[in-house]
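We modelled the chain as a single entity of 253 amino acids. Its sequence is:
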Amino acid sequence: MEINNMLFYEFARLVVGPIAEWHYGIKTEGKDNVPQEGAALVVSNHRSLLDPIVVGYSIDRFVNFAAAAYSFKMPIVKQLYSWAGAFPLSIYGGEESDKNISKAKELLRRGELVGIFPEGVQSFFNPHRVTKIAAFKTGFVKLALEERVPVIPCAVLAEEERELPKIPGFLVKSYVKLPHADQGIRFITYRGITCRIGRPIDLSPYFDEQPTKALIDRIAGRIRRIVIKLYNGEDLERFLTGEKAFDFAKDPV
């Protein structure tokens, strides 16, 4: 993260953060699970535009968030994201996505934290689905394996969710080229927020394995299940407090 980004980030944390903490009732669990130094990938669920604010405020270190590339086409949003040190990540894959991933690699090689929301915006289109956490896109696993960094699972949950006015489909589809974009989006805001930061996941047993699609899918699925456990408040002695030992490569989730 560049110095100007750090200044803006720190200003937001010190000035806006306490206001947001009071207004939204933000609480953090597992803050000490984030190592004080060294690279790691912070992976969180994503139901609201508030999520990066909550995760960023809950973690004492700077987090370089990956944001959907289309959001950098929106004038005000683009400026705010750029000031905060966020970088674009294509949700469509292909060459553009590969180019964006190179920025994440650069940050990790410098020993920084990178934050990714593997659901993308899928939950925004159907916030009332029974499964609160949508399927994870798997690119973050390949990134973690290639750069040999741990994954820090994180869950943002709220006592109360409230829908904001719907954004019409004709506005959404001009930026987001996904199925159902023409139906519009209803963004969600929170009250009574808890950010649970899980124990770092050691992927070193897989570093020397061939990164096949099957392996990457399996790892992504297991990490998603851990995020779901954190979200639901289950098995916290394994995934949050570390009171019970957990071996990611061997133990069931």
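As a brief sanity check on the tokenised model: Strands lie at 27-29, 40-44, 63-68, 87-89, 113-116, 151-163, 188-197. The CA atoms of residues 31 and 197 lie 6 Å apart.
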